Amino acid sequence: MKIAGFCILILIFSPTAAAQKAAPCDIEASINNQASSMLTTDRNGTNVRSGPGTNFPVRKTLRDPTGFLFHITASQGNWVRIDEYFAYRETERQRLDGWVYAPSLFLIVQENNLSNEKFVDNLYAAPDLNSPLLFPKNSTVADGVPLQGCRGKWAKVKYKEKIGWLNPASHCALIWDDGDCRTDPE
Questions:
Q1: Cβ neighbours of 168 (radius 10 Å)
Q2: Which pTM was predicted?
Q3: Could you give the CA distance from residue 124 to residue 136 in angstroms, rounded to a whole number?
Q4: Is residue 117 predicted with pLDDT exceeding 60?
Q5: Local confidence band at 35 (pLDDT 50, 70, 90 cut-offs)
Q6: 55, 67, 98, 183: which is deepest, by most CB within 10 A?
Q7: How many Cα neighbours within 13 Å face the side chain of 57?
């Protein structure tokens, strides 16, 4: 009987997929709430939750027709942790600690320096420059790709039903057409 009780305690306190550890990140991603944009995911606003899931309460709902740029510090499952955000019409970044649903955010694939074409030749199977490429070299890609997660400065994204890792030099989060993708809107 004591053994059965011990087994139950082990099952209760064992980690599950829901309790997985968050991976540290340092990237930016954006959401565009404009009705005319193909990258719009929620015109009613962006919920920032207290934890990584819909079962956590909403800390704040961000509403701006132009969308937001988020600094991401961690990734857990389909959720990313933010510590600040920036809206186009604001003059400075705002602090906000919370979690956002990753696939509602987008990254822009950087232009190739030589030809102004965008390529997925930096979409890897793992967050490692030595891992295999998911598409043939010099395959072109649309500008925006939805975020799936992150690790360090690598962004996990979805493109043509494949999920892979964008080389840190291959992406940025700028959603507004007013300059170089590498330029911070601040």
A1: 18
A2: 0.79
A3: 11
A4: yes
A5: low
A6: 67
A7: 1
